[in-house]
Amino acid sequence: MKKLIINIMATMAMAFTVIVPAYGAKEAADTLTAGEVFANLPLKTLEILGKSTRLDMLDYYAADSIYKAPNGMEGLSELVKVTPKYLDVKITPVTQMQILMFEPKKKGPACAVLYTIGGDGQAPDTDVTFLDEEFSEMPREKYLQYPDIVDFFSIPDKDVKERIEELVPFPTIEFIPNQDTFELTAKLTVGEYMGKENFEYIKKYMKPELRYRWNGKKYELVK
After folding, report:
1. Residue 70 forms part of a structural domain
2. pLDDT per residue over 50-61, tens digit each?
3. Which one is predicted more confidently, 122 or 18?
């Protein structure tokens, strides 16, 4: 009788066991997910979100529970979207981070991390970082050539080029990822922070956006 009770209790325990994703430990490179990258990121940009907080955020998201986690800036952070290949987190009202996972390639990056600062009187500006499967930073210029200011314009002559470079000495660029195609859209974001007359001048020649396509090895500008 005692043995029967033990067997029943063991069966019940197995039935009610909850399997929680092991975000805290990195798995093999071919199974690395966006959630695991988020949990293990060593980037200084996430100093305000400790690892235990990130793990809590992932667990609540997996349980379909809305959770706004307190961060080191005395504010709240929230996961917007999490899939195995994509993650979007609102860190503060003016900072956002997105992770794009690539198919594993020998000596290639495992993922791209896009960190955007903007809002509250500041033009959105994105920093793109590439990481390998060990979460070490890889040389960005090898995988994405940041656009020059002239790339955003259809410039008819040298005078216009010089005038645009004079009016936009420090361009701010927002990169917007597509979680399905892995394309990046780059937008020049200086417009609303320029004087109206100067913006009207550059607007005549400005392209609405630039598109970058991942070819399996690096991002290339779509002509």
Report:
1. yes
2. 999 999 999 999
3. 122
